[in-house]
Design brief:
Layout (H helix, E strand, L loop, with lengths): L1 E12 L2 E12 L3 E5 L6 H8 L7 E6 L2 E2 L5 H6 L2 E3 L12 H6 L10 H5 L3 H21 L14 H14 L4 E5 L7 H16 L3 E5 L3 H7 L2 E6 L2 E6 L1 H5 L2 H6 L9
Parallel strand pairs: 3-8, 3-9, 6-7, 7-8
Antiparallel strand pairs: 1-2, 1-4, 4-5, 9-10
Helix pairs in contact: 5-6
The structure holds adenosine-5'-triphosphate and magnesium ion (MG).
């Protein structure tokens, strides 16, 4: 079953076409990789899916629902969560508070209800705390829940972004270069974590330059260059594809 479908999605920034009529489907329950050279449009594809940028043209369907034009909060409400290439945390808040920010889609409290502390709001906050703690535990960060986010190491900050995304019980998780800046051991742990996320029934769509990681954990890979799809298939097919080798893989170091 297809969970996410991109049909002819296009994004122009002035005279630059960053994403150029891309068709792509992510099947439910899979780990799907999106790869390509620097500047090929990968992050822009994620920004289009998650409603950060409006599309120039094309349609996006999630779980059978047309979500084209949905703003970011509404896309998240539908069960789609992400992490960012450049880490985006509230550094003065605690690790736990950052993780709680991912639970918005599970809540109904507005500002007024929260201010007057209605009993159901207090119950809701306890529930969110529990969800966030469970997500921190899942990524191995529950021990630092009360630390300020700025105090934890860089690799842990990346995991905190994953925990924040997981705290809202997403159906689809988008990871933009999750292994960036991680050392070998951290990358291996991240790979095991992504496998566990999929085992929980969450579909994973990820952008990554670490080719060893991509080839090992992804079932499907789509390759883009200059905003266009130039290859698609299982890892072995993609690695043997001449167009892909010429445009990207020949320059990549396949180690991790
Ligand atoms: N907000 C923006 N305004 C103008 N141009 C943009 C904007 N965002 C991205 N671009 C351009 O779109 C193209 C694709 O950028 P994008 O960030 O999607 O690439 P990428 O594949 O994620 O690259 P990398 O591997 O380096 O992260 C680039 O030429 C980039 O400069
Ligand atoms: Mg990018």
């Amino acid at each position: 079953m297809t969970l996410l479908t991109l049909q002819q999605i296009t994004k122009n920034f002035g005279g630059l076409t960053a994403v150029d009529h891309i068709d792509l489907s992510v099947e439910k329950g899979t780990i799907h990789g999106l790869i390509g050279p620097n500047g090929s449009g990968k992050t822009t594809v994620f920004n289009l899916i998650t409603g950060i940028y409006p599309l120039t043209s094309g349609t996006i369907t999630f779980n059978g629902m047309d979500i084209t034009g949905y703003p970011a909060f509404k896309v998240n409400q539908k069960g789609l969560a992400r992490t960012f290439q450049e880490i985006q945390l509230f550094y003065d808040m605690t690790v736990l508070e950052n993780a709680m920010m991912g639970c918005q889609r599970l809540t109904r409290a507005g500002a007024v209800a929260a201010l007057v502390k209605l009993p159901w709001v207090t119950r809701e906050e306890a529930f969110i705390r529990e969800k966030a703690m469970a997500a921190l535990d899942f990524v191995g960060l529950s021990g630092t829940a009360e630390e300020a986010a700025r105090k934890i190491p860089y690799g842990h900050q990346r995991l905190l972004e994953v925990a924040r995304a997981l705290a809202g019980d997403p159906e689809l998780l988008l990871l933009d270069e999750p292994a960036a800046g991680m050392n070998h051991a951290e990358t291996r742990e991240l790979m095991a974590l992504i496998a566990r996320i999929r085992e929980m029934g969450i579909t994973v769509f990820l952008v990554e330059h670490n080719m060893k990681m991509v080839m090992e954990i992804c079932e499907w890979i789509t390759v883009i260059n200059y905003g266009q799809v130039i290859g698609h298939g299982k890892p072995a097919q993609v690695q043997a594809d001449e167009n892909v080798i010429n445009a990207y893989l020949s320059g990549e170091n396949i180690t991790c």
